[in-house]
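Weekend entry, working from home. Most of the wet-lab plans are on hold until the incubator is repaired, so I used the time to fold the two sequences that have been sitting in the queue since the last round of cloning. Logging both here for the record. First:
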Amino acid sequence: MTHVSETLKGRHLFVTGATGFVGKVWLSHLLAHVPDVARVTLLVRGDRGRTAHKRMADVLSTSPAMRPLKERLGPAYAAFVNARVDVVAGDVSQVGLGLDAQTRAALASSVDATVHFAGLTDFQPDPRRGVPANVRGAVNVADVVATFRSPALLHISTCFVAGMAEGVAPETLHVGRSPLGLHFDPMTELDALERLIRDVGDPTERIDRAVARARQLGWPNLYTFTKGLAEHLLAARRDVRLAIARPSVVECARTWPFPGWNEGLNTAAPILWYCGTAFPELPADDQHLFDVVPVDAVARWTSVALAALIDGSGEGVWQFASSDVNPVTFGRIIELSALERRRQARRPGATLRDHIEAQIDVRGTRWDALLPVHP
């Protein structure tokens, strides 16, 4: 494959989910490192009284993700972005993505590749929200991409589609085989979920029944079930050129837009919060892996996978994870949390609670993360 920036130079990219955590970091990183990209058309849904254009304008003008690009370009920032970024109002949960025929035709004639970030990351959502966003949304995107002159689709999934299976998760996908090795029909599963949404009025019952089916197949929750089902439905198609990217736990930035930037309540945040309470003892195995990847690493890898797909060498599954070559354990996470507590304990006004460090309770045996703090 040629250099990523050379491959993406002059391309027209169609992107969903650019207002999300990973999507906006990827967009910022792309514009900074591939300034010769021809066009990036963003599908954005209006939300909470804001139009799609207003919503994206807020991201471009106020999000910390755009800070390094704004600082680099200064007064030229707005013109630079306007020359490269388009916004079209739409919704992945709608047939045709909610786009009119003229817009779809214009995209079909010029788009070189599509990146589908959009989705719902709640672990246990009401199926009325999770299925349209994660499953039917992926199908709708693929239906539109299939009409493009270049039907190349990079679908952003999750490593946790591996489900409850143990051992090494290969970079392959066997359509119709669940994490537990059971055979199933992906479209039949989607039809059953959509009947559940139509026929069952109680949200708790909808969730319980959908989770029961997910676990029967080997997915522990609705998030992994919907993301896994979307993968199977897309991989069964022959009218798109598909690459699937599977990030693990996406966390704070390493360098871009700046070290430590995060957004929302991510997986590590509850652990860090709990370690700062009066009861910082966690029931866990200190050697268990906690596979976290920086959001800017995911952004870079996304561009690599996209360039490879455009080049014709990137179809298949990409795992964006660290445990195989650079593992981090729960023990190390608690160590780092305790170091932060130690740093806070040195601040003026620290209380006794700030001197309590986190511990792991391993099968009933307490394990101290660090030596006691000395004020």
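Second, folded right after the first finished:
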Amino acid sequence: MNEPATTAIRRNFVRHLYDWVLGWADTPYGVPALVVLAFVESSFFPIPPDVLLIALAMSAPTRAFKFAGWCALGSVLGGMAGYAIGYTAWVAVEPYAFGYVFSAEKFEKVMGWYRDYGEMIVFGAAFTPIPYKIFTIAAGVAKLNVPVFVVASLVGRAARFFLVAWIVRRYREQAKALIDRYFNLLTIAATLLLVAGFLMLKVL
């Protein structure tokens, strides 16, 4: 099968997954589905939990922060599972990870960041649109400090999801357009400022 056809099939598959994830918002099982989605996205699933979180928060804005809390919990637990996979089973899962979850090049880049900057990078991955799953598994392979990894994940994931919830509560109908247009840039800018402050503290 040629490359364009393969790419089209992959896009259609991801689109179907996206629609399937959104469909849970219209069922009584939206919150459990959000927790499960946040959990599996932290190690292998391609659709970010923000998709379902936004849909749930827009349907019930007064519960937006509660949804964000459940989302953060599921994501951090999933991150810990990803860490365990990297720490205990990387040799077994490596061929499947590189084939279906992320590329070897991206993984090696993350490992280089861990060697250079350590656990600080975890917060950036947890808060920004960088695929979190690569960092959780790589953290296990790199054998990062577990408590620091968990705290950095919790702070980063909670900051991300509660920011999404706040935008939905504050802007309601305009929220999705604002998140689609500006959210990724906002999280990246905030992370760069945090890293710059951290490096300045180290220098001083």
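Plan for Monday: verify the second prediction. The CA atoms of residues 133 and 152 lie 14 Å apart.
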